[in-house]
Specification:
Elements lengths: L12 H14 L7 E3 L3 H12 L5 E6 L2 H12 L3 E6 L8 H11 L3 E5 L11 H10 L3 E5 L11 H4 L3 E4 L12 E5 L1 H8 L12 H4 L16 H17 L1 H22 L15 E5 L15 E3 L8 E5 L7 H15 L4 H14 L1
Parallel strand pairs: 2-3, 2-4, 4-5, 5-6
Antiparallel strand pairs: 1-7, 6-7, 8-10, 9-10
Helix pairs in contact: 1-9, 2-3, 4-5, 9-10, 10-11, 10-12, 11-12
This protein binds pyridoxal-5'-phosphate.
The site of pyridoxal-5'-phosphate has 14 residues, from helix 2.
Length: 353
């Protein structure tokens, strides 16, 4: 970690450019992402504000609470929103998305890539392929996927992608990013309603082109931006592939531990589970109905409280020790011996890493 110097110097152009390069490398895009002066949800709201307008029709896929919110923001901007919603213990299929596209004929499609709240991961590559066949603008909330799954933005042809560093990347939550394709910028620029001189304005934050005069926006939080640079350098030093593999190992080891404890995953399709959180079905098991988080074992959010537990094995907790501790916590709640489950965790972890 860099130490923060006293004698405060606002974010320099060099630091700003470096952060842009690190973000572009992380997201495998040649277009410098927008640095968002706040947490990821601000970037997501800024996307909605920048693209929504009367006469624009969106297909919004809802597989968790953030999808609902995004749809509301699109409607607030006057857009027509068709919703494709699935029960929260499932993810959407590319076939269902394609059928919905054919039915509602939208200009753009939006979805949450992976959901830490429900523990599901949507088939992003296949959804984007379907969207490309219909020439749609694509919007993805990848806050809980980046660092836990592949996210090759240019290869996928994704147009607007929101990310944050505080989940898998072990970074700060006070500054985040939105990647925008040239087509995405055109879609924003052609929207009369796209905000200007506003905290929700992506246009105000658009990174400069080659040789273009540019002043680093003074409202980008300096300390958070420096912390994000440090976090992205740490990810690059470990290797993004390795970071992703660590999250996959954590998810598999957690699944193995749960099986040994006789517990069931909340997400029905085991092949579509998030690599950042594993959700545990509570069923009628009163002993799993906790009020407060115990380490990385947390009660369900909102309407999911009492239905599932979350095991938040992301960032620094995507580790063997992190998973073992969570499995011991669950065994403790069930008042059963953890030894066999810990052995299962160890075997699954070692098979993967
Ligand atoms: C965490 C999360 C967000 C919000 O991120 P903040 O930085 O807390 O604003 C948005 N979308 C998804 C899918 C998330 O998991």
């Amino acid at each position: 970690m860099n130490t923060i110097q006293t004698g405060f110097v606002p974010l320099t152009r060099e630091e700003y450019d470096k952060l842009g390069r690190l973000l572009a490398g992380l997201l495998r895009t040649k277009h410098t992402p927008v640095i968002i002066p706040g947490e990821a949800i601000l970037g997501i709201e800024a996307i909605a504000a920048s693209i929504a307008a009367p006469g624009r029709k969106f297909l919004n896929i809802v597989t968790g609470p953030y999808g609902t919110l995004f749809g509301e923001w699109l409607e607030r901007g006057g857009a027509e929103v068709e919703e494709l919603r699935v029960p929260f213990d499932e993810v959407v299929t590319a076939e269902a998305v394609e059928a919905a596209i054919e039915r509602s004929k939208p200009q753009a499609i939006s979805f949450v890539h992976a959901e830490v709240v429900t523990g599901g991961s949507n088939p992003a590559a296949a959804i984007l392929e379907a969207a490309r066949r219909h020439d749609l603008i694509t919007v993805i909330d990848s806050v809980s996927a980046v660092g836990g799954e592949e996210l090759p933005i240019d290869e996928w042809g994704a147009d607007l992608v929101a990310i944050g560093a505080q989940k898998a990347l072990g970074g700060p939550n006070g500054v985040s990013a939105v990647a925008v394709s040239p087509r995405g910028w055109d879609y924003i620029a052609s929207n009369e309603r796209a905000p200007r001189s506003s905290i929700l304005s992506l246009l105000d934050l658009k990174p400069p082109g080659e040789g273009e005069a540019f002043r680093v926006p003074p409202y980008i939080p300096t300390l958070e931006a420096r912390a994000l640079i440090a976090a992205l350098e740490a990810v690059a030093a470990e290797g993004l592939e390795r970071v992703i593999r660590r999250h996959e190992a954590a998810a598999e080891a957690t699944a193995a531990g749960l099986r040994a404890l006789g517990l069931e995953g909340w997400q029905r399709d085991a092949s579509r589970r998030s690599t950042l959180t594993t959700t545990v079905r509570i069923g009628g098991e009163e002993r799993l109905k906790i009020e407060q988080p115990i380490g990385i074992v947390a009660p369900g959010d909102g309407e999911l409280r009492g239905q599932l537990l979350r095991v938040n094995h992301f960032g620094a907790n995507a580790s063997r020790v992190g998973v073992e501790t969570a499995i011991k916590t669950l065994a403790g709640l069930l008042q059963i011996d953890a030894a066999q489950a810990i052995e299962a965790v160890r075997a699954a972890w070692e098979a993967r890493l």
